[in-house]
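Quick start: what a row looks like.
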Amino acid sequence: MRKPHVLVVDDNEFFRSAVERMLSRAGYTVTTARDGADAMGVVAAQPLDLVLCDVKMPGISGHELVRQVRDANPDLPCIVITGYGGAEASLEALQAGAYWFVEKGTEQTSHDVLRKLVAQAIEHGRLKNENRLLQRQLQGRYRFDQIVGASEPLARVLELVER
């Protein structure tokens, strides 16, 4: 079984390296990017389990990065982490599709809390992906395309059975 893969995106090299070391020690495969453009290249090229990104970066913002990641892979959770917090920034991140919003320098960014949040977000993404796969399998399994007939009573029965 492969180790969960986390992409850490932050223009602050010190913070990016610190999070990379912490997550690597916790057993994750970690890739880093310094901005949104680099991050989207990684998202397109590698299977990921989580994106952890800053809000304020050169080029595209963290909120826009979350939108682009969600467009590319709706089941890939994103955690937004920033030094510029507040209710408005938090709401904007969640509206963009972020799994969670964390302020740097708070209790939420302690190593233990951040590791737990990362694990929860990865599990959430895994469950969403598994759910989507199971739904597709069920739809394919219980289709009635091979039944020949066009009568109204047969159509009602097939509709009832499909529900």
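That is the whole record. The longest helix spans residues 111-141. The mean pLDDT is 87.
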